[in-house]
Sequence to fold (332 residues):
Amino acid sequence: MLYRSASGSGITTLTNVELGIAAAQASGIYDIKAFAIEMVYIPGGPFFFGDGDYLNGGVNATVIYAGGTDVWVSPVTNPNTICRNGFNAYYCMKYELSQGGYRDFLNTLTYNQQVNHVVAAPSAAAGTAALYNLNRNHIKIKTPGISSTNTGAVFGCDADLDGIYDETTDGEYLACNFLNWPDQAAYLAWAGLMPLTEFEYEKAARGIALPVNAEYAWGTTQIFSSAIFTLTNPNQISEIVTNSSPTLGNANFANTYPNAPYAGPLRNGVFATATSTRVTSGGGFYGVMELSGNLAERVINFYTMVTYSSQNPYTDLNGSGYAFGNSANFVW
Fold:
């Protein structure tokens, strides 16, 4: 983990970074790659779980009367109430997993590991879609893999369809759709991370604020829904929505979903600008983006958490590319 030496903002330049290798492994050939994931620190402390919206579509809302108040939610005030309940501090990815991030993950795997995390065979021809060639998913096979030698394919992004991969116009900053639970679990194990619990998701969105009935992650019930989003600089790091609301919460969902060919997930953090607020950026209390809209967030739900260890259930990938580790402490 790399931190700023003091609170603030701006660009941080790292110099003289060294990687230590134990003496017993000092000889040999190593292929060293570095991957950065921007994280948000969620501080420890009590918070409210659930907004109580069980009458207006919140089918799975937690409805526990909080004694002495008129808010039908459960206050989490004890770190020992349940394992991984969000009371203690934790880190959360700031953005949804990008297509560039999933591409990088795939490119570190063997053929036998890749085959379980893509739709097309890794040995398919260059230009074949790795997942599905629709809804703005632009990950494709750049160099076919070889199954007989367990040599993985090389994947790249090619949104502009010119056969030249990973250009600035190729969509690597878009959130990555068409992933399932095993895909997500494998990525997290590879990255040294773990899935959010339902409690942790609630805290990342609501923070320490009192719940608002039927609220979105930005803390209000108001959401912009009067127009389909239009894009400028699509598929680039500068992709923006030109008609987002200057006052209401913004999210990519059914009423604002862009028309083809941009019908799909938007760039991570697309609504966050130098002048946006928590509401107009669609951000959570601590600045985590897209907790409402764009793509769904998979979490470990309350019912599973009762058997969920505070340790990371995933520690590595097996030869087939699936996450494994502390399985005795975790019920999937």
The helical segments are 99-106, 111-114, 181-191, 198-206, 278-281, 302-305. Residues 99-172 form one domain. The chain has a mean pLDDT of 86.
